[in-house]
């Protein structure tokens, strides 16, 4: 079967090969035919080495498709079912799951170290234990979440990561209050989802911050009340909050520099929500006096900060009701053989989400 493979960490391009085999099928597993997958910035971060991932590997973790086969012991799924891929499934039994924080379950991360593909030259890993830049993949049954028939594959794929992460940051983690002021730093697919989440929660002002003009324009269509470049954020803070700072600031880039900017633009007693996934050697610093004196809440948000199955259901309900726009988030569509075009579109900021159709 065909798949897009990164041979070594640090390479800029993927090679589309037709000699890849999905392996590991057996009890508790399902084999999926991927129909659509989104390109998330985390895929690029894994390719560059910012996020740890063994190589060679197949990127992609934001996918949807249909079940081809189910292994022994699998219940609730059958061949032909439409599903989205959950890259961080909850085991239901670990301490995090039992205390109601399934997004912190580590069971899914354990899958990342087990190859789930093979080529004639050896094993190939799937990013985050999945790897959706491929025609077929074998995953644990809890990674395959059934979706209703009226949800297109490309919409389901976005819900599988970017939409859930951004919406959840605003709704679950920060719990944006009605009438509040919000700034979102970084307006790709996750950022515009955070914008939509803040709008759903009733924020009065939502300022989108991004260096790319096309992304600022897009953020306005998704509910931002205004959009500024990074060097204009200070003026917006002065105008909108009289210099006090925003009630909520979302950092959706994953860098300490933008996290520091977000902190400085959060009002005293306000909330900084860190959504971007960054590098282990990139350290965010605050001094002990400001940490105490400003009483700003610093809230990291992992995969939307809540029960992802409930978050999927909520995203579908909001989409059906017309409260959030998911179709317009897909700004580009490519076939698997053109996946490197998708990588370039994301690196330049040209795309919000590129859908790879298989």
Question: Mean pLDDT, as a whole number?
Answer: 96
- Summed up, the helix count is 12
**Helix content percent band:** 25-40%
Coarse structural class: alpha/beta
Total count of strands: 19
Shape: globular
* Rounded Rg: 20 Å
The amount of beta strand, in percent, is 25-35%
Low-confidence stretches: none
Intertermini distance: 11 Å
Strand count, sense and barrel status of the largest sheet are: 7 strands, mixed
Task: Describe the fold and architecture.
This protein is an alpha/beta fold. The protein is built from twelve helices and 19 strands. Strands 4, 6, 7, 10, 11, 18 and 19 form a seven-stranded mixed sheet that branches. Strand 8 (117-119) and strand 9 form a beta hairpin. Helix 5 (162-173) runs parallel beside helix 6 (189-200) and helix 5 packs across helix 11. The longest helix has 13 residues, at 308-320. It is globular, with a radius of gyration of 20 Å.
Structure summary:
With 358 residues, the protein is of the alpha/beta class. The chain is 29% helix and 26% strand.
Features:
single chain; about 350 residues; alpha/beta; 19 strands; globular
Helices and strands in order:
Elements (H helix, E strand, L loop, with lengths): L2 E3 L9 E3 L3 E2 L6 E10 L2 H8 L8 E2 L3 E9 L11 E4 L9 H4 L8 H4 L6 E3 L2 E5 L9 E5 L3 E3 L6 H7 L2 H12 L7 E5 L3 H12 L4 E5 L3 H9 L4 E3 L4 H9 L4 E6 L4 H9 L1 E9 L13 H7 L2 E4 L7 H13 L9 E6 L3 H10 L4 E5 L1
Parallel strand pairs: 5-9, 12-13, 12-15, 13-14, 15-16, 16-17, 18-19
Antiparallel strand pairs: 1-2, 3-8, 4-6, 4-10, 4-19, 6-7, 7-11, 8-9
């Amino acid at each position: 079967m065909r798949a897009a493979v990164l041979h070594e960490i640090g390479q800029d391009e993927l090679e589309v090969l037709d000699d890849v085999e999905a392996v590991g099928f057996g009890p508790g597993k399902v084999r999926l035919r991927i129909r659509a997958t989104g390109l998330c910035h985390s895929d690029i971060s894994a390719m560059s080495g910012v996020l740890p991932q063994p190589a060679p590997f197949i990127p992609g973790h934001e996918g949807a498709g249909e079940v081809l086969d189910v292994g022994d012991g699998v219940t609730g799924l059958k061949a032909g079912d439409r599903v989205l891929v959950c890259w961080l499934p909850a085991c239901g039994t670990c301490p995090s799951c039992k205390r109601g924080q399934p997004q912190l379950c580590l069971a899914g991360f354990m899958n990342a170290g087990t190859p789930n593909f093979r080529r004639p030259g050896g094993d190939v890993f799937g990013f985050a234990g999945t790897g959706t830049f491929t025609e077929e993949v074998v995953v644990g049954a809890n990674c395959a979440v059934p979706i209703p028939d009226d949800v297109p594959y490309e919409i389901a794929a976005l819900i599988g990561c970017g939409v859930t992460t951004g919406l959840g940051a605003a709704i679950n983690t920060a719990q944006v209050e009605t009438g509040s002021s919000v700034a979102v730093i970084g307006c790709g697919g996750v950022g515009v989802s955070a914008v939509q989440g803040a709008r759903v929660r009733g924020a009065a002002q939502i300022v989108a911050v991004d260096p790319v003009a096309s992304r600022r324009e897009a953020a306005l269509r998704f509910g931002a009340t205004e959009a500024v470049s990074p060097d204009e954020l200070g003026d917006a803070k002065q105008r909108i909050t009289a210099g006090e700072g925003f009630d909520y600031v979302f950092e959706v880039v994953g860098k300490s520099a933008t996290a520091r900017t977000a902190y400085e633009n959060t009002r005293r007693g306000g909330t900084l929500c860190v959504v971007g996934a960054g590098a282990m050697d990139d350290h965010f610093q605050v001094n002990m006096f400001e940490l105490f004196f400003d009483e700003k809440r610093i809230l990291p948000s992992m995969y939307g900060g809540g029960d992802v199955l409930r978050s999927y259901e909520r995203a579908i309900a909001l989409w059906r009701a017309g409260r959030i726009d998911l179709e317009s988030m897909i700004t580009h569509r490519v076939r698997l053989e053109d996946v490197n075009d998708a990588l370039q579109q994301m690196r330049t900021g040209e795309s919000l989400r590129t859908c790879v159709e298989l």
